[in-house]
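Incident log, structure service

09:12 report received: a user says their structure output differs between two submissions of the same chain.
09:20 pulled the input from the user's history:
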Amino acid sequence: MNESKAIRLCIVHRDPSGFEFLVKKFKREALYHAVSFTGNYEDAADICQESFYKAFIAIPKLKKLDRFYPWFYVILKNNCLNFIQHKNRFDRNSDEFHKNSVSTSSGPETFFEKREENENIWRIIRELKSEHREILILKYAMKKNYKDISDSLSIPRGTVMSRLYSARKSFRERYLGESHISDHREERGGNNGK
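09:34 re-ran on a clean worker, output below:
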């Protein structure tokens, strides 16, 4: 079976085996994307399950669908953003995500420095406005090119580029602002110790 046949089974024949194929094909990408938004594996898994359920209910109502993931991504993204909006605090323990992104080969000091830096980066990303957070995640966490981002968000390539520029600028300002505050605190702490 391929994606087109699976979509046709869902829409034309209302056959659940088509949807099972689509879930198997895209569940890993969906989970990775949700973890990128939430920073937490368990929350991401719940959001993915809810999103696939909503897609399962909605797909038979469609008349036509060329590609599943760009359509499904809208459902997943909205569920992620709703989750983030309604959650008062974020679970900062994202070991499942960071395990794959931090190497321990340079020794324990480097490992913890990189891990702390990684957590700081994700905290700043989560604090950005949703359209900036989303485009940074698609570009850098999911390694999507401009065309894929354009397809996923249903926006022109030029809008992708300008939104990405604004998102990078916003991230850089926060990141450098925090580095400056941290350096200033260390200087004051060093003076107090003398």
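09:41 both user submissions now match this output. Likely a transient worker issue. Closing.
09:42 reviewer note: The chain has nine helices and no strands. The radius of gyration is 20 Å.
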